[in-house]
Each structure stands twice: as structure tokens, then as C-alpha cells.
């Protein structure tokens, strides 16, 4: 028997371990998520995004001096070459938001002349995290026909981002919700987008290319696009009184997927989902309050209906309501996910290249015909 005859395909690479990591631990049965050993609840409640950035890139929560250093590098990295914003501005206003983000990053990459791994990887990652804030804010601004704007250096990455996006000031409570969003989405081991980034890093391509690979994989409705897809469900339902009928028609009889539910790893509630729900309860006013009521009714029906399959709300179910409550239209949800996950993508590629680099090159199990005789064109039927 040949090697390939013995091989088995792991559909969706389920339970395949492509790297070792000290970054993120997930216990999908018990609904536990930790970054470098710290429980996600502790981090979301007590640490700022900048502290988490230091934790993920440098291994430890920062002391005051280290935190200042992270903030200084982020603050000095918001500026991007003018042509990057011009590129985003001249593209069609109805471009896919994620495509605009890719264009911004690709434009930024043209300024990176001689990228070398292992020289200043963590510093570079910090600079990219700063610049991604500018690019994400301007996805919103370009799509709304507003003039581009660069975040101002300040105390908080989240606040600077919000204020650059909307050109208005935000309260410390609102900024803190944005900050928690950034912490909660910062990393999640190796989902499709991080795996795409790792494949690119494994060829020793540059960090911007890793980011573009990751973002394109993030976009789909089965991954990062699920926050928007979940929110659109709430909009489609339109009123809490219509939830039962919609669920019966669309999910039970229609056999469609309930977006914002289910996860490859969790077989219980996603711990991030619970934190988002409690924040959405605080942030959701007016229209957002109505969507929250719809989501809560849908959650009850979904949990009951999918109990035997162990399908529960994931992080995307309530996160969109929180972001909508902060003023973001739903087209911004995937770019916001990317803004936060930039940290995870870069921390994973740096960990991989620094500590365990090898070209990622899996195999495909050939199941086509055996050797066949070539038939010239004029003899084919
Ligand atoms: N609604 C209805 N049925 C579902 C759902 C769902 N949301 N999720 C899984 N299932 C069912 C499938 O139909 C399948 O049923 P079957 O065995 O009877 O055919 C079974 O559960 C297993 O589904 P798979 O797609 O094989 O499971 P997988 O682990 O690949 O799916 C995924 C994970 C893609 C996230 C899935 O749960 C899904 O499509 N969810 C909706 C989209 C979503 O919310 N994505 C966000 C994920 S989290 C994130 O990226 C941040």
C-alpha cells in the first residue's frame, strides 16, 4: 500500500494541530478562553487593550514603563503615507469594506521595501497595529464620503480610534466598551484567518501579506462575516413579536444556519458571547434595544432547538448589537473584527517564525483516475 493509499483526509482540518502556542488556550467543552494563562473575563474586566497587546507580543502583562512604551509606539504609528489614504479614497464608495481594508494594507505594503523577519518583529507588529487603526477608521470615513482622518495620539487606542472614525468625542464608558471589544476579539488560537496568515508567514513572505491573507479569510460568513450576518438576521426579523414565526420558517423548516450560533471548538456557550451580551444590555438604546430583544428571544429558541447538537451562541451573536449601539453601521463589523484580531494574527506569525518555523505544505489525497492514454484533440469525441 502506498503512502497516499494509507492517508486519510481531515475534513476542515478538524483536530489538526499546526503549531504549538503559548498565546491562547481554549477549552471548548467547558467554555474557557485564556490569553497566556489569564482568563478572558479577568482581562476584559481589568486590562486595557494596550496591556493585552504587550501580554500577547511580549509574554507578560506590562509594568507601567512597558505600558508607556507600547502606547508611545502605537501613538507614533497612526500616521500612514498620504497615498495610502488617497488609494482608499479613490476606490468606489460601494466597495466591500473588507476589500477597502485590503487595499489600504496593500498600499501600505508598497512602502515596506526590505522586510526581514526576526529583526524587529514585535516592534513591527506594534507599528502595524497602530496603522490598522487608521485604515479601519478610514474604511468608515471613505464609505460615508467623509475626508480621511488619522487618529490623534492619546491615552487610549480605543478612544483615538472611535474619535478618528466619527470626528466626535466619546465618553470614557463608551471608549471602555470599544476597548473591551478589542480585548475580546484579539485572539482565538488558529481559526481560518490566523491559519491563512500562518501559511503565508511560513513562506517567509512579509507581515503585511500575512495580514492581507488573514483578512480575506476572515471576510466569509462562516467566520468574521458572521457578526454582520447575525445582525442582519435581527434586522430581517424586525420586531420581537416576529421571532417565533421567523425561527420556525427559516431555521426549523427552512434548514438554514442560525448565524452567530455554533463553533468548531466550543460545545457550550462561548465565554466572550456572555460578556458581549452583558455589555450590549448596557449600550443598546432605541433601535439597538429592539435588536437586543430579538436576539434574546432567538437565543432561547436556538439553544433549545440545537441542544442535542451542542450548538450555542458564539461571540458574534451579541457583539454586533454592542457595536451598533456605539454607532457603527453593520458594514463595519468585519473591519472591526479585523482591527482587533490584527494582534492575534501578528502574535501568531511572530511566534511561528521565531520559534518553530517550517514551510506549511500539506498534501491532497489523489482520488482521480489512474494513468490514462493521451488522446489528441482531433480524436476526442
Ligand atoms: N445553525 C444551524 N445548524 C448548524 C449551525 C448553525 N449555526 N452550526 C452548525 N450546525 C450544524 C450543521 O448543519 C451540522 O449538522 P449535521 O451534522 O446535521 O449536518 C452540524 O451542526 C455540524 O456543522 P459543521 O458546519 O460541520 O460544523 P463546523 O464545526 O464546521 O461549524 C461553524 C462551525 C462554521 C462556525 C458553524 O457552526 C456555522 O456555520 N455557524 C454559523 C456561522 C457563524 O456564526 N460563524 C461564526 C463562528 S465564530 C467566529 O468566527 C468568530
Automatic annotation (TrEMBL):
- UniProt entry tagged with the keyword Transferase: yes
Keywords, in A-Z order: Acyltransferase, Transferase, Tricarboxylic acid cycle
Q: Name one GO molecular function term.
A: citrate synthase activity
Gene3D superfamilies reported for this sequence: Citrate Synthase, domain 1 (1.10.580.10), Cytochrome P450-Terp, domain 2 (1.10.230.10)
* Keyword Lipid biosynthesis listed: no
Q: In which pathway does it act?
A: Carbohydrate metabolism; tricarboxylic acid cycle
What is the reaction catalyzed? oxaloacetate + acetyl-CoA + H2O = citrate + CoA + H(+)
What EC numbers are recorded for this enzyme? Answer: 2.3.3.16
Family matches, as InterPro entries: 2-MeCitrate/Citrate_synth_II, Cit_synThplmales, Citrate_synth-like_lrg_a-sub, Citrate_synth-like_sm_a-sub, Citrate_synthase, Citrate_synthase_AS, Citrate_synthase_bac-typ, Citrate_synthase_sf
List the catalytic residues: 263, 316
Q: Which family does it belong to?
A: Belongs to the citrate synthase family.
**What is this protein called in UniProt?**
Citrate synthase
Per the UniProt record, the source organism is: Sulfodiicoccus acidiphilus
Amino acid at each position: 500500500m502506498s503512502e497516499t493509499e494509507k492517508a486519510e483526509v481531515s475534513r476542515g482540518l478538524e483536530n489538526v494541530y499546526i503549531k504549538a502556542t503559548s498565546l491562547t488556550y481554549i477549552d471548548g467543552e467547558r467554555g474557557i478562553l485564556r490569553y497566556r494563562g489569564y482568563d478572558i473575563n479577568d482581562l476584559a474586566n481589568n486590562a486595557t487593550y494596550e496591556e493585552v497587546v504587550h501580554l500577547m507580543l511580549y509574554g507578560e502583562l506590562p509594568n507601567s514603563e512597558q505600558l508607556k512604551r507600547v502606547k508611545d509606539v502605537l501613538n507614533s504609528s497612526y500616521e500612514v503615507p498620504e497615498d495610502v489614504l488617497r488609494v482608499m479614497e479613490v476606490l468606489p464608495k460601494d466597495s466591500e469594506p473588507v476589500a477597502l481594508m485590503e487595499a489600504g494594507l496593500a498600499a501600505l505594503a508598497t512602502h515596506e521595501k526590505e522586510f526581514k523577519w526576526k529583526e524587529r518583529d514585535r516592534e513591527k507588529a506594534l507599528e502595524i497595529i497602530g496603522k490598522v487603526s487608521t485604515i479601519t477608521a478610514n474604511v468608515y470615513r471613505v464609505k460615508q464620503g467623509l475626508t480621511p482622518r488619522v487618529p490623534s495620539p492619546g491615552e487610549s487606542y480605543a478612544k483615538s480610534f472611535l474619535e478618528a472614525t466619527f470626528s466626535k468625542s466619546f465618553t470614557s464608558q463608551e471608549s471602555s466598551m470599544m476597548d473591551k471589544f478589542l480585548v475580546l476579539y484579539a485572539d482565538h488560537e488558529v481559526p481560518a484567518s490566523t491559519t491563512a496568515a500562518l501559511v503565508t508567514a511560513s513562506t517567509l513572505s512579509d507581515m503585511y501579506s500575512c495580514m492581507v491573507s488573514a483578512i480575506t479569510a476572515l471576510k466569509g460568513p462562516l467566520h468574521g462575516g458572521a457578526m454582520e450576518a447575525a445582525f442582519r438576521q435581527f434586522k430581517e426579523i424586525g420586531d420581537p413579536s416576529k421571532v417565533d414565526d421567523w425561527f420556525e420558517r427559516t431555521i426549523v423548516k427552512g434548514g438554514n444556519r442560525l448565524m452567530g450560533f455554533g463553533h468548531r471548538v466550543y460545545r457550550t456557550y462561548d465565554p466572550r458571547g456572555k460578556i458581549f451580551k452583558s455589555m450590549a444590555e448596557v449600550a443598546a438604546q432605541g433601535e439597538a434595544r429592539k435588536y437586543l430583544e430579538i436576539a434574546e428571544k432567538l437565543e432561547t429558541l436556538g439553544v433549545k432547538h440545537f441542544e442535542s447538537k451542542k450548538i450555542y451562541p458564539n461571540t458574534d451573536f451579541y457583539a454586533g448589537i454592542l457595536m451598533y449601539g456605539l454607532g457603527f453601521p453593520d458594514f463595519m463589523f468585519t473591519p472591526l473584527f479585523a482591527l482587533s484580531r490584527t494582534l492575534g494574527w501578528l502574535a501568531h506569525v511572530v511566534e511561528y517564525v521565531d520559534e518553530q518555523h517550517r514551510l506549511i505544505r500539506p498534501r491532497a489525497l489523489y482520488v482521480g483516475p489512474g494513468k490514462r492514454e493521451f488522446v489528441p484533440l482531433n480524436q476526442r469525441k
